[in-house]
What does this fold into?
Amino acid sequence: MATEKSTAGAPLQPFGNVEWVKSFSEAPVKIYSNICREALDATARRLQVHANYVKKLSECDGPADALTCHGEFVQSFVSSFFEDGRRAFETWRKAISPPGPK
It folds into this structure.
C-alpha cells in the first residue's frame, strides 16, 4: 500500500503559494476604500455647510438679507465643490501611485 501524507491541520492550497494574489487584491480595495472615505468626508462637509446656511437663513430679517445669504452660500458651495474634486483626485492619485522607497 502507498503511504499518504497526513494533511490534518494544514491549509488547503491547491495552487501552491497564493501570496502573489494578495498584492493584486489589495490595490483595488485600497483605492475603493480611500475614495469612499473621501466621499464620506465630502458629504459631511457639505451637510455642515447646508446646516449653517439654513441656520443663517432663519436669522435673516428680510428678503435682501436672505438674498445676500443665498449668494454667499452659492459662492462657498461652488468653491468647496472644486476643492472636494481636487481632494478626490489627489486621493485617487495617491492610491494608484506606486509606493516610494522604504
User: Anything to note?
Assistant: The helical segments are 19-58, 63-96. Residues 22-96 form one domain.
